[in-house]
Design a protein that fits this description.
Length: 346
């Protein structure tokens, strides 16, 4: 492994750091010690690692850097949501949203600069994909936002990977970041049950996610037939509903867990009662709950939000079919921080 003082040590995984430590002739226990300083203790420099000898700290400093999260701008919504613009080392930017709940905070984080999925209702993918985020860049959003929360405020307890990008298209870095998020010894100590990953439906990676993590899965569905979903979400042409639902049926779940299906309600596109009935039939084989998300209108889309009465009638039909179906009004719309509105623009 090549390292120099421009290499962000937080981009190394456990094995890579262990190999470097062995190559320097250092004791094996240094690996966990350094990782704990980087994540659990949020060290911003090697000098802060006070239980590590000075020569070892100097060696680390000669080979690596610790790049702190770079928050360039913060916008606050009338509902209390806060949108953070992070500037990356190469000048690209991404956005994350801190959402106040009744007794805690939820953080929506990004996994890519832009997005290649091309969903017609989403602003993020309008300019395509620039690149994947590294493991450190994913974790920086969590640690950067956490540092902004006052000590006497509610805690950040929930993470949703629902920001810019398709998480399963950046699988290895996302998996490595989740490993640190959920590690109680050296990592950030989040519960697996309080981390949710949302996918547009990259079927092969869903099996990998179930094997490698215990976090919760959300599927961005948005249609109950292939014709409509092909039009809204190009990924459906590669992994049509038959393959997607089969993958959901096979997805390994804890006994009480369900897969969350996100369904954005768009006027005259997917919001008819017959759509609700077809959706209920489609999801019958799956342990499912449904989040109905009224479309967040923006200038770059021709779509409109369904009317309130239509939204409620759609929900009532699903409830009648014995589904858990919640209407989720996105927060932060006034600062373009709602579902589908993140762009990472300065």
């Amino acid at each position: 492994m090549i390292s120099d003082n421009n290499t962000n040590i937080r981009d190394l995984d456990r094995t890579q750091l262990e190999e470097w430590i062995a190559a320097q002739g250092l004791s094996k226990f240094r690996n966990e010690q350094i990782l704990r300083w980087l994540y659990a203790r949020r060290a911003r420099s090697f000098d802060e690692m006070t239980d590590i000898s000075k020569p070892t700290r100097q060696l680390l400093d000669a080979h690596f850097t610790i790049m702190p999260p770079m928050i360039s701008r913060v916008e606050t919504s009338v509902d209390g949501s806060r949108k953070y613009l992070f500037v990356l080392k190469d000048g690209n930017t991404i956005e994350s949203v801190l959402i106040p709940e009744r007794d805690h905070y939820t953080l929506c984080i990004s996994t890519q600069v832009g997005c290649a999925m091309g969903c017609r209702f989403c602003m993020t993918g309008k300019n395509g994909l620039t690149r994947n985020l590294s493991k450190a860049e994913i974790l920086d959003q969590v640690q950067g936002a956490a540092d902004e929360i006052p000590e006497d405020a509610p805690r950040l307890t929930n993470i949703v990977l629902m920001g810019m990008g398709e998480p399963l298209a950046n699988y290895e870095n996302v998996r490595r970041a989740i490993d640190i998020m959920t590690d109680n010894r050296i990592g950030l100590g989040f519960s697996h049950r309080r981390i949710t990953l949302s996918t547009a439906g990259i079927v092969p990676r869903m099996k990998d996610l179930a094997r490698d993590t215990k976090i919760r899965l959300a599927v961005s569905l948005n249609a109950s037939n292939n014709e409509t979903r092909d039009m809204l979400m190009p990924i459906n042409k590669k992994y049509p509903l038959e393959k997607l639902i089969a993958a959901c049926v096979e997805y390994s779940l804890a006994p009480r867990d369900k897969i969350t299906f996100e369904y954005i309600l768009i006027k005259d596109v997917n919001d008819r009662i017959e759509d609700a009935r077809r959706l209920a039939k489609l999801l019958r084989p799956v342990k499912a709950k449904i989040n109905l998300i009224p479309f967040n209108e923006h200038p770059e889309s021709e779509f409109k939000r369904s009317e309130q009465a239509v939204i409620e009638a759609f929900q009532a039909e699903l409830l009648q079919k014995h589904y858990t179906a919640n209407i989720r009004w996105s927060k932060g719309a006034d600062i373009s921080a709602a579902c589908g509105q993140l762009r990472g623009k300065v």
